[in-house]
Amino acid sequence: MPGGVPAVSGLSFFEDESRSLGIADVLKPANQARFAYPDAPLRGRESDRVLWFRLQVHLSDQASTGREWLLVVPTVSTHELSFYGPYDSQGRALAEPVVTGMSHPWSTRPASSEQMAWRLRLPDTQTYTLYFRVDSTFARIYDVRIWRTVRYLEDTQDERIFDGLSYGMLLGLVVYALVLLTIFREGIYGWYLASVVCALLALAGFNGHSLRYLFPHWPQAAWFCYMAMPPAWVFCKLQFGRRLLRLHHFAPWLEHIVRLMLGALVLATVLAFANIQVVWMFRLVQACVLLSTMVLLVGALSAVRRRYWPAVLYSLGVALLLAGISAIIVASWGWVAWTPDQMNITQAALVAELVVFAGATASRLRLVLQSERRLSARTEQLVEALGTDALTGAASRSGFHGRAEALLAEGRPFSLMLLDLDGFKAVNDSHGHAAGDAILQAVVRRMQALLRGEDMVARLGGDEFALLLPGGATRAQLAALTERLAESCAAPVDFEGRALSVGMSVGIASYPLNASGLDELLRLADQAMYRSKRQRRATRAGHAFAGERD
Fold it and tell me: Where in the numbering of this chain does the GGDEF domain appear (predicted)?
């Protein structure tokens, strides 16, 4: 039948407080009398204990004899599960005992199933008795079912596809997070990557895939995955959430609560490393999952009120997870009846949350990029207004004055050159302002190419430029630089197929040799520049030093 034959109503059990009874002890009349049928078998809290189960079965028709059946115990967290029987009415076992569980390698699984499944055959229609022993940190009554082997594989195909899709989506999110981390190198993307990886490993542990595929010969590693990955996932999720939501800014009081939970999760992870298998440690993780989800939901709503839009998607993801995890956690606490479908709901909610978080991360990234573009544009406006000439990229008059005053305040010697382009007005008049602009831009580029990194080219207005040259350069060095500037700037500038050229006149003054203040330096350099105009030769830029006579 679809879904297998439910067997939980026929299960009787007792708890082995000594944790040492064997099948021979259980078959004794005194222990047989201990088996009882619970009133609500699928309700009850998980706890660290050893349980013995007994189930009586028989075939309804002779045609089913000899067929293989599977007794499926829907659990992956059992340390050890031992199957005994079937026993006939004479107490004889038809098969050897089977011992498997998370404490044993994958090869011990009789049906190669992630869940605990036992193969059995019944030779006739008489009643047979099955026993199985569960040793688990989370032992409870399980929704045991009996399946035809072929039907079990058919009916669980959808679940395998569901698991494959879940893992595929998580692996895609791992790649997405890696790309973000590689490009932007921000801690928030590292925490998102870690949360996805931990979620992937946690699901692999919960579904039994870590033992089947990752550590088939190393059950201790599979158990560690089962215990350590959930607190590690919640830890990384909290770190990602507090950064995405900017809790320190929008809700500082929630930031303190999150820090306390982070400490509790570190403790839980350390206990998992130490292999301390206690139920209260898992309860701590479950409580942190619920509490952290609610705290982050409140934090997201606080951020939404402040118009921080990435929090909208984040709150949706957290709400999805809160709904999904509540189903399995409240069942593990014994508040509602437990069914295997609750794990699928939780798995779907976890994957959905991480997918929505990817959208929230993209929204945050878009917000950050928009903010950076606005900041960059504003910065450019301020730089242009305060110290940069918009046309040529040289320093503006205000930038020049700021740098000169700084050098004077430091007492550093420097030289000042004032430059005027000869023939520039003729170019403007004959070829237009666009040609003049091309000349100015070319001249600035050529001057900058000849100067040191600490030197400054400034456009004071029109075709008048100033050069600030820190350091105590000699007259010979300044004269040589002037010649190189003249040769470079006199080279023709190609504008719309026409070769345009200008000359250059230069006046030079030095601090502190010629003056002790900027105004006086500018006056002396200006006088020297006009003197150079009078003295220049036809094809070369003239230059003159302050204090010289005609």
Answer: 412-544
